[in-house]
User: Fold this.
Amino acid sequence: MKYINMNTGNTIPMLGFGVFKMLDKDECKNSVLYAIKNGYRLIDTAAVYTNEDAVGEAVKEAIEEGICTRDELFITSKLWANDMKNEDTAKAAIEKTMKKIGLDYLDLFLVHQALGDYFSGYRAMTEGYKAGIFKAIGVSNFYPNILTNFCETVEIIPAVNQIELHPYFVQNDALETMKYYNIVPEAWAPLGGGRYDAFNEPILTETAKKYNKTVGQVMLRWNVQRGVVVIPKSTHENRIKENFDIWDFELTEDEMNKISSLDMGYGDTRTKHFNPEFVRMCLNNVEKINKP
Ligand SMILES: NC(=O)c1ccc[n+]([C@@H]2O[C@H](COP(=O)([O-])OP(=O)(O)OC[C@H]3O[C@@H](n4cnc5c(N)ncnc54)[C@H](OP(=O)(O)O)[C@@H]3O)[C@@H](O)[C@H]2O)c1
Assistant:
């Protein structure tokens, strides 16, 4: 496993495990436990995924079974948009998360979306950071303009910005802004989130064949090689193992550039965030977020 330094002085693993849309509690708990048993140390959940409890249970079980210690793990959760009405609603949501996940602290806590009153939300998170409940705080889905204004305004510069990053949405402009502020970029949907036709894309299939790897492994490696943390999700044991096995090959500069040429210049969220119906849904009809 490789790690990157965060601006807090702590490190973050470059490969983690995402649990979005794992709505079945047993499936989520078993998948997380299986991931930890197979070497994953970073787990990425969120209040809106409704599975913080399953993640917390898997973590406690892994520690009890002696697979790893709490300090070796890196647990992330996120504050949802409709909980950021003001600082009090954000504090109540933070308390709910900590109770539900059942851990003494989180390694990273993120503003999930730049929606609602996220400055108030972040102020409540800053209090949690100072109190040691969060070892690091950060943001998610913050585009360069929003991130720049945010960094110039808040007391604590975010440690991480988790955004959509895969070969079809390369976002070099976002990476440059994060580099300027020393913020670690973390990729959600690093496998394209099941959208796009990546697994049949000749540039990816040929590269995979050359290294005797899979298209998924090439996509993950491509992000890691440009300094991006990846958090692929899977409920299949073979894929959980496969997605972790990306450390024994290296893409050439030419291959990195060819893969980057798949960029469409837009992705799932940059389209959605410009859509009033999606924003309204995030702020009001939270249950729709987890629908397939
Ligand atoms: N901050 C945000 O707004 C945000 C948004 C979305 C996601 N996230 C986080 O990022 C994580 C990853 O994103 P994601 O879940 O949307 O997308 P993803 O990890 O890019 O893709 C997951 C999809 O790929 C499939 N898959 C996994 N491994 C595979 C493999 N080796 N070969 C072929 N298919 C494979 C999975 O199916 P199976 O499960 O059936 O294997 C699932 O359909 C999430 O779980 C969540 O933690 C954050």
About this structure: The pocket of NAP is lined by residues 18-20, 44, 112, 140-141, 162, 188-194, 216, 231-236, 239, 242-243 (CB under 6 Å).
